[in-house]
Structure to design on (272 residues):
């Protein structure tokens, strides 16, 4: 009888722990994982959405290949459950685990990149801030990619990447955190996915044969402010703002630029 009582108490304690973890995760999700406390500044204009948005359960891998993989972008909701990864990406969790490790920052311009290595804690506490519209890409420092996979393995192993891969490709992760108003200007590369963990990220895309007009050293924020409002209708981009739990797929060689509307945490899976 004592053994049964002990087991019951042990199970109750485990259940209570699980409930507390779930409540903590919900709280972190509600306040942006603590990242939104970094600044009260955020951009409110999410813009239109003219990209297909589908529930992940409503499209098969074969349909994805036939309809989107080689022809146009798509946004998929509920494709994976990354609740645990989101919990581990909260501000407090990442600072505790990676605060003293060095991360590599890149300038946010299109064709040339300056690299700077700083402790992760210094980036979060000193450099992670809103970007002004008159800042140049060469003068900004952006944390995205260049992740030391060995050092970040304990985090990445909890990420569930999108299951719809292209034939003869494998995925490589790029993880990032950036302040409101930041983003990467127009560029292109191979196909991939991008998922927002915290915050909101606005995307602008053009097909390979429709190169957008932009200055390679001007930021996406300046392009949105100065160029975007004056575009002729036939030069308007495909665009949408994605939120946590949504994954955007972009095909090979599509031009794209991003704009973080909040302090955002995000991860991309590049297919190569």
């Amino acid at each position: 009888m004592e053994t049964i009582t002990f087991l019951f108490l042990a199970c109750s304690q485990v259940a209570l722990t699980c409930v507390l973890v779930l409540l903590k995760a919900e709280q972190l999700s509600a306040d942006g994982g603590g990242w939104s406390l970094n600044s009260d500044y955020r951009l409110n204009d999410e813009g239109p959405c003219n990209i297909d948005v589908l529930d992940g359960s409503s499209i098969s891998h074969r349909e994805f290949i036939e309809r989107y993989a080689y022809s146009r972008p798509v946004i998929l909701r509920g494709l994976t459950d990354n609740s645990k990864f989101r919990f581990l990406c909260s501000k407090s969790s990442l600072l505790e685990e990676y605060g003293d490790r060095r991360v590599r920052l890149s300038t946010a311009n299109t064709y040339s990149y300056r690299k700077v290595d700083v402790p992760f804690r210094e980036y979060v506490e000193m450099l992670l801030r809103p970007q002004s519209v008159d800042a140049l890409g060469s003068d900004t420092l952006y944390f995205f990619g260049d992740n030391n996979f060995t050092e970040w393995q304990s985090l990445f192993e909890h990420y569930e990447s999108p299951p719809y891969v292209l034939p003869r490709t494998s995925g490589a992760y790029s993880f990032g955190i950036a302040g409101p108003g930041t983003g990467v200007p127009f560029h292109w590369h191979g196909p991939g996915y991008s998922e927002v963990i915290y915050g909101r990220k606005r995307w602008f895309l053009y097909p390979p044969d429709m190169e957008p007009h932009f200055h390679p050293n001007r930021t996406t924020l300046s392009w949105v402010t100065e160029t975007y409002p004056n575009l002729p209708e036939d030069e308007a981009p495909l665009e949408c703002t994605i939120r946590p739990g949504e994954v955007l797929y972009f095909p090979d060689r599509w031009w794209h630029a991003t704009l973080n509307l909040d302090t955002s945490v995000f991860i991309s899976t590049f297919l190569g």
User: Anything to note?
Assistant: Helices lie at 2-30, 61-69, 83-88, 91-98, 120-127, 149-156, 220-227. The two ends are 59 Å apart (CA to CA). Confidence is low (pLDDT under 50) at residues 1-28.
